[in-house]
Specification:
Blueprint (H helix, E strand, L loop, with lengths): L8 E2 H8 L3 H9 L6 E3 L2 E4 L1 H13 L18
């Protein structure tokens, strides 16, 4: 069995590290921008996945990161 080198992060941990709201982190998770695992009703982020998320953002490599909203609002007529 593999040994965990670092404990998994909570959504609150990720939000605190980046100084963003927890809802922002949940948005990334919902849009599959930030890899995660669910343990029962809890969401956890692997520290290695979080490091990769930051590395991609730092380099400006957004090719694997989906844009925010993909749907547009209908034009008001």
């Amino acid at each position: 069995m593999a040994e965990l080198s670092r404990p998994y992060l909570t959504v609150a941990d990720v939000a605190a590290c980046l100084q963003v709201n927890r809802s922002t982190v949940y948005g990334w998770i919902f849009r599959r921008v930030l890899p995660h695992v669910k343990v029962g009703k809890f969401v956890r982020v692997d520290p290695g996945d979080f490091d990769e998320f930051l590395r991609l953002r730092r380099r400006g490599d957004f090719s694997s990161i989906p844009a925010g909203r993909t749907q547009t609002r209908p034009e008001r007529g």
